[in-house]
Design brief:
Helix content: 25-40%
Order of helices and strands: HHHHEHEHHEHEEEEEEHEHEEHEHHEHE
């Protein structure tokens, strides 16, 4: 059937009737494939009749990328004229640098637009029209920080939101204030939240009306400066958090002001979710460990990833040390991102734990480590082999004879 895709007006009445006689589900599949090949052709088809227009919109507006502030202004104008299109949008990504917003603010307003490009309330208003939005990715200048934050204050316009990523570009690469968007943690339907380069002081969620349990399953704090007490406060809100990731670079810039220097404080902050968490990743090299971690309460945890072995066992000290650590009861994978053996006493404790695996960590199957400059010690390799523990060495040569006996 020839549709004359390059010119929708060239389709005969008979062809239009044959096309629209197909079930909506079949037409959607055809239009999705056409949209992958040529969005221009799909736009042409959308002009065939009301049915094609409705189904084409569902594809054309399903995922929107705002690469410039001009685009979000003109698109806002379009939605204000046709708000029905807002319900067809399921994914939005806003990503443009501060320089573009500054330039637009200095230039003349966009022709025909009543919206102010230097203010974020227009952007918030546009997003609120997207009633079926499921994924929101924000990477814009911090001048938009407060206005976008009001979008999460409730009552919730984004009633179907499931995934959100927030990053606001600040001068001198500073951390943006998470308190301006703090209500994102109270969003009832949100399942996955990524926060990049934000800071949060010790006030936590200090609002009189605390939200009911939320649907948050995954929380990623990427290069953030987060107070551990505030994190503990926020983690009381999810009904059942399953995955937690917190990362930081070896030499944070600017220097951290709110973060604790003890990994144990963050494990303590996670305890309200201990019965639900399945995976914990703390790739935060500057954190120390004063005492061995006690994680027996994390009864669902199968994967634990840390930067250093001493974050798990605590640093050497003059006081007597217990030769044990409270590993999660059903842990299967333990991974260290940095070299083992930088602390002799910690290395001895790790060896003891491996040797007692069948007693204190019966479900432990795999330990993942990096090769490091000096490699992995023969004692660790032999202990893992004797205990039936799989040792994965990242960076080791496949032909390494030390690791070929499993």
């Amino acid at each position: 059937m020839s549709l004359g895709l390059n010119d929708a007006n060239g389709i005969s009445c008979a062809q239009r009737e044959r096309l629209t006689a197909l079930p909506d589900e079949i037409l959607l599949q055809i239009f999705e494939e056409l949209g992958r090949i040529s969005r221009r052709d799909l736009c042409n088809v959308s002009r065939v009749n009301k049915t094609c227009h409705r189904l084409s919109d569902a594809i054309l507006y399903k995922s929107i990328l705002f690469e410039t502030p001009e685009f979000h202004l003109t698109f806002s104008e379009s939605l204000s004229r046709r708000p029905r299109r807002g319900s067809a949008i399921y994914e939005v990504k806003l990503s443009y640098p501060s320089s573009e917003l500054s330039q637009l603010s200095l230039d003349a307003p966009v022709h025909g637009s009543h919206l102010d490009p230097s203010r974020s309330n227009s952007l918030s208003r546009t997003l609120s029209i997207m009633s079926n939005l499921e994924k929101l990715d924000i990477s814009v200048p911090d001048v938009l920080l407060h206005g976008i934050g009001t979008l999460f204050n409730g009552p919730f316009d984004l009633a179907c939101l499931k995934s959100c990523s927030l990053f606001y570009q600040c001068a001198n690469d500073a951390y943006w204030d998470l308190r301006e968007n703090i209500h994102i943690f109270a969003h009832p339907t949100l399942e996955s939240l990524t926060i990049r380069r934000a800071k949060l002081d010790d006030k936590g969620f200090d609002h009189i009306e605390r939200p009911h349990e939320t649907a948050l399953k995954k929380l990623y704090l990427i290069e953030c400066d987060i107070n551990d007490d505030s994190l503990s406060d926020l983690l009381e809100l999810p009904e059942a958090l399953e995955e937690f990731v917190m990362t930081q670079v070896e030499e944070p810039e600017p220097e951290l002001e709110e973060s604790s220097d003890n990994v144990g404080d963050y494990i303590l902050a996670l305890q309200s979710q201990a019965e639900f968490l399945k995976s914990i990743t703390i790739d935060f090299p500057t954190l120390t460990g004063r005492k061995a971690l006690r994680m027996r309460q994390f009864e669902a945890l199968t994967t634990l990833r840390l930067s250093w072995d001493y974050q798990l066992f605590g640093k050497s000290s003059k006081k007597p040390r217990l030769h044990s650590v409270g590993l999660p009861p059903i842990m299967e994978v333990l991974e260290f991102f940095n070299d083992l053996g930088t602390d002799d006493e910690v290395n001895d404790l790790l060896l003891t734990v491996i040797e007692q695996k069948n007693i204190i960590a019966r479900t432990w199957q795999t330990m993942v480590v990096v090769e490091g400059d000096d490699g992995v010690s023969r004692e660790i390799k032999d202990a893992c082999k004797s205990a039936g523990l799989r040792l994965d060495i990242i960076g080791a040569m496949d032909t390494d004879t030390d690791t070929d006996d499993d």
